């Protein structure tokens, strides 16, 4: 943490159910903790996702510290936090790309 922001490193995963590889070109998403917007994520890249597999890549998110501290008390009381990412991505192959919306959520246990 430094100043008014904190950086969290994590791993994102994408599943490609197709029997051919696809290319991920862009991700544009909002990140929520317990239904409260904590940051915006934007990735402009070109990544090939192999066929019929889950592809993992490391990334980082910058958060405003005040937003995190607003969620801390609630997270400690419930001992879990609901993380949600809503956005859109551009995927395709052979030079043809389409925009695909996504909405992914998971509950993350907090160990004290």
UniProtKB/TrEMBL annotation:
<feature type="domain" description="Late embryogenesis abundant protein LEA-2 subgroup">
    <location>
        <begin position="11"/>
        <end position="105"/>
    </location>
</feature>
<dbReference type="InterPro" id="IPR004864">
    <property type="entry name" value="LEA_2"/>
</dbReference>
<protein>
    <submittedName>
        <fullName>Late embryogenesis abundant protein</fullName>
    </submittedName>
</protein>
<dbReference type="Pfam" id="PF03168">
    <property type="entry name" value="LEA_2"/>
</dbReference>
């Amino acid at each position: 943490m430094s100043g008014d922001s904190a950086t969290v490193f994590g791993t994102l995963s994408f599943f490609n159910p197709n029997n051919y590889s696809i290319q991920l070109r862009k991700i544009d998403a909002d990140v929520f903790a317990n239904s409260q917007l904590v940051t915006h994520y934007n990735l402009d890249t070109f990544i090939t996702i192999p066929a019929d597999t889950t592809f993992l890549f490391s990334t980082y998110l910058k958060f405003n510290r005040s937003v995190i501290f607003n969620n801390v008390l609630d997270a400690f009381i419930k001992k879990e936090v609901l993380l949600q990412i809503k956005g859109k991505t551009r995927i395709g192959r052979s030079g043809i790309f389409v925009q695909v919306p996504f909405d992914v959520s998971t509950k993350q246990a907090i160990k004290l």
